[in-house]
Design goal:
221 residues, mainly alpha, globular, single chain, 0% strand
Length: 221
């Protein structure tokens, strides 16, 4: 039986899905443009602005649902977490634009040693896709993978920065330090997003392994 709140929940899911697709596109465009020396600043800025507009749209819609429908616990957790996740989406869009500004400021840096960035960007792209998919499917098992990816990015960040201080190529070192910082922050927001998905499913932002397993078992049964 369709409830009064269901059409609004479907609209919310649709908007969040659109935001997820735009986030993946903007992050990929920004990272690839940095590594290959192409300029996508205007394209990424347009995506970032569109993501922010949808963030406000989600806020208005969730506020409207809270006022009109008095949602039950499961719906309330989804509505509340959607505002948090849509904010994370808006931050992803902004960091993508910041990356294009680094490319714009320093010019083509494809000749720099970017091995650490290549590894970090692979993990970041994977994290974003897993976080978006995890929300779409409410699959909390992916949260474990997201946290492992974040640890990998943090490790590269901590190990690489001291080496950049000793670099004789100031331009490459500064550009890489900025990009590593943005990637590290994107990783933090992906973990924040996975915590919000955990809250939707289990009622806890950081559920125990046993709690995750119990919900996984329920899904499989």
């Amino acid at each position: 039986m369709t409830r009064l709140i269901d059409p609004s929940l479907h609209k919310l899911s649709f908007i969040m899905s659109e935001m997820g697709d735009m986030v993946i596109e903007s992050i990929s465009l920004a990272i690839d443009s940095y590594l290959t020396g192409t300029n996508t600043k205007d394209q990424v800025l347009k995506l970032s602005d569109s993501i922010r507009v949808k963030y406000y749209e989600v806020e208005d819609l969730t506020f409207d649902m809270l006022l009109k429908y008095q949602p039950v616990a499961d719906d309330f957790r989804l509505i509340r977490s959607s505002t948090e996740i849509s904010y994370a989406f808006s931050r992803f869009g902004r960091y993508a634009y910041d990356i294009t500004l680094v490319r714009d400021l320093f010019g083509d840096v494809s000749e720099c040693t970017n091995a650490s960035l290549v590894e970090s960007t692979k993990k970041v792209k994977h994290m974003i896709k897993e976080a978006v998919l995890s929300f779409a499917e409410l699959d909390i098992r992916k949260a474990i993978e997201i946290r492992e990816d974040e640890k990998f990015i943090d490790q590269i960040y901590r190990e690489r920065l001291p080496k950049l201080i000793e670099s004789t190529n100031t331009r490459c070192a500064l550009a890489e330090a900025l990009l590593l910082r943005y990637l590290e922050r994107i990783g933090d927001h992906a973990v924040f997003m996975s915590d919000a998905i955990n809250y939707i499913v289990t009622g806890k932002h950081r559920p125990t392994d046993e709690r995750i397993a119990s919900h996984t078992k329920t899904e499989q049964n």
